[in-house]
Amino acid sequence: MFNSKAKIKSNRKVIQKKLRVIITNSCNLNCKDCFNEWNPQRGKLFAKIQDIYSAIRNLEYSVLSIKLTGGEPLLHPDINEFCKQLEDFAPVSITTNGLLLSACIDTIPVNIPVTISLYGKTALEFSNHTQVSLIYFYKQIEQLEIVKSNPHRTFFANIIIKDSSSWNFSDWLEFALNFKFKKVRFLTKLGAINDKIIYQNNVESVEKFILSNPTCYKNYYDPSTLSCRYGDLEIQLIRQYYEFDLAVQKTYGFIWINPNGSVNHEPNFDIIINNGFK
Known about the structure:
Layout: E1 13-14, E2 18-22, H1 49-57, E3 61-62, E4 66-69, H2 79-86, E5 92-96, H3 101-104, E6 114-118, H4 123-130, H5 135-149, E7 155-160, H6 169-177, E8 183-187, H7 196-211, E9 217-218, E10 225-230, E11 233-238, H8 246-251, E12 254-257, E13 263-264, H9 269-275
Parallel strand pairs: 1-3, 2-4, 2-12, 4-5, 5-6, 6-7, 7-8, 8-11
Antiparallel strand pairs: 9-10, 10-11, 12-13
Helix pairs in contact: 4-5
């Protein structure tokens, strides 16, 4: 078990950025818009806790939060250690497709928020996005029952707003409500948009719903986020940082740490938008 006794740099400047740690690029899905743009060697890299810990310790600044991602982070056998050790630096969360939730839930500390990416309300929609068998949709639905049965834990949902006439905000909201998430995050798309009119209408449907709610508020430390309360649920519209000017992109957003411990301070949005993630 890794146990660092190295002193963390004191008096580090706190910046308004969040850290995404890619602890593996292995995944049990094959999504069209995979958010693993830094390394094309899918399925071969698993981070070592000491490499990631050292990379964060050696940063010249402190970040707001740390998100464990991939690939599929729950494939990493040391997910529990990553959660515990990296809390030395900032609050830690996990973003996952949820397919391994039942196998890992008892090893994930109760205080760690888990965000599950939802790729379809039907088996066909799920399969079209993830490029795997229809059976995986039903596997995810089974795993989502864990969200309902663990109200003491913090589960969020990620939903990508699509450029399709079949994408419907109200339907997605109803779908997410059924599983009793504490927060549902509707994300604007990062990548090529085929039908900009339909896409913009879908984004506006989320935005109008939130703005019309009397509980609507903007995140004071991040201009990309617009939120409201809907009963016990928090609903968010999350815009990608490339939609803002360079000043916002440089002040807010993410820093990436790759499985080998290397650091990417800013993504190349032009490459991602034009060429996708693979």
